[in-house]
Amino acid sequence: MTDQKTSRREAILHALVELLENDPGARITTAGLAKSVGVTEAALYRHFPSKRKMFEALIEFAEEAVFTRCQTILQEQDDVAVRLQQLVHLVLLFAERNPGLCCVLTGDALMGENEALRKRASQFFERLETQVRQVLKEGEIRQGVRPRTSPARGAEFVLVFVEGKIQRFIRSSFSRLPSADLDESWGLMVDSVWEQPAYA
Description:
Blueprint lengths: L1 H21 L7 H8 L3 H7 L3 H26 L3 H18 L1 H7 L9 H29 L7 H21 L10 H12 L7
Helix pairs in contact: 1-2, 1-4, 1-6, 4-5, 4-7, 5-7, 5-8, 7-8
């Protein structure tokens, strides 16, 4: 019974992500979602007490997937430039493979929803910025790699780069992939973050 419930929950979330991907910008209704899953609205509410809880479950999935891998990168890599590059690549590739989720994390899919839900989604990028700031601080302490500005401002620049790539992906109806020309654009980003390239 528990497996059935888990399976149904996953089917609902999968359908929600597909709706977001296939019709970005459209307002998702529980009636439309129920139809997509092939169940009644009452059945939806047996698994999720509200649409907000469905979106929160998607945000939690994204956080778990990305930040678990972030910790692995930090444990496996000591070099600040490699760490930062791999973190950025991780987030952009995750976004590329999960276009519907991008609309949730950036708040695009949450227009008209509860403001608390939009704030909840923004925590994903706030947490990422905190992680990047910590990487820059550690790079300065352990390797003497000084940012052009403070670690806080450097982290802000990196997040503008990441969020810009993701927003462009959404705006293009998912045709302009975040990974396109990533090595070249990341090289330019590195030049703007550090006083001198950490490593060629």
